[in-house]
Amino acid sequence: MPQMTFKTALITGASAGLGAEYARQLAAKGTDLVLVARRRERLDALAAELRAAHGTAVDVWPADLAVPGDIERIEAGIAGHSTLDLLINNAGFGGRTGFVRGETGDHVNMLRVHVDATVRLAKAALSGMIARGRGGIINVASVAAFSPFSGAMYSGTKAFLVMFSENLQAELKDKGIFVQALCPGMTHTEFHEVAAIDKAIVPKPFWMTGGEVVHISLKRLGRGTVCIPGWKNKAVAFLMRCPVTAAGVRVVGRASFVRKKDGGN
Asked: Which of 74, 150, 154 is nearest to 117 (CA)?
């Protein structure tokens, strides 16, 4: 199956990290873009860069997807867009504390960004995609979806994205629309600094660049719903899910040095 091409892609969390990398790689392929993120100045700078480099049309829609009104505004914009054929639900953040010590408002915001926004934006995009008989939705999850020690809210919401994507793809069978749950492992972006996660806990060979992750994601869209980039991440996910090894992983997850570093309770 040849790699899919798209007319217009909307990317949430587009101002940095994987979102910005998706924008750069898609613009290089001639895809027009709608960029969504909180930081207007970063979106404007990225849009200017992509217009100059590739001549693609780039719209900027600033929004904070932890705010219900902003979700509604982007939802309405998607529903009214005539050429949108790729939706990348990339916006997300990691928790700084565990569930018990964390603030309820922070947990609710994570639900809004990871779950509520993903569901509502996908729903808004699908009517047009189904009418045109083609399209793609990429939901950026994480190998943490399979992890017993990556935080109750973070792992829980990412696990939702995996199951949501798999079941949505089954529902969309034979409609020409492909859904992907991207499950990256440790990736060099701003994510870990923002979440105050100690990157030294993971050996250097396990890290990937954002460019590598996005390249694999776009190449694999339409070739299976769950995309775990890199054989090392595949091995980690297998060890966390395999009944023979899962117990050992949980023991490691309960170790004090791991709980301290991942913000556990």
From this structure: 74
| Residue closest to 265 by CA, chosen among 27, 96, 80, 132 | 96
2 within some domain: no
For 63-87, what is the mean pLDDT? 97
User: CB-side exposure of 24: number of CA atoms within 13 Å?
Assistant: 16
Looking at residue 195, what is its pLDDT?
42
Please report, as a single letter, which amino acid is at residue 234: K
**Weakest-pLDDT range from 98-102, 160-164, 184-188:** 184-188
* Choice among 38-52, 99-113, 116-130, 244-258 with the minimum mean pLDDT: 244-258
Name the pLDDT band for 265 (thresholds 50, 70, 90). very low
Per the structure, the count of domains in the chain is 1
Q: Which domain holds residue 71?
A: 8-262
Catalytic annotation on 22?
Answer: no
CATH of the domain at 34: 3.40.50.720
Catalytic position from the list 22, 61, 149, 154: 154
Predicted pLDDT of residue 249 = 55
* 192-197: long-range pairs with CB below 8 Å, 24+: 192/94, 194/93, 194/94, 195/93, 195/94, 195/95, 195/96, 195/263, 196/96, 196/263, 197/94, 197/261, 197/262, 197/263
Asked if residue 1 is part of any domain, the answer here is no
Contacts of 162 (CB under 8 A, 6+ apart): 141, 145, 181, 183, 226
pTM of the model: 0.86
Question: Would you say residue 56 lies in a domain?
Answer: yes
Structure token pair of residue 250:
């949980």
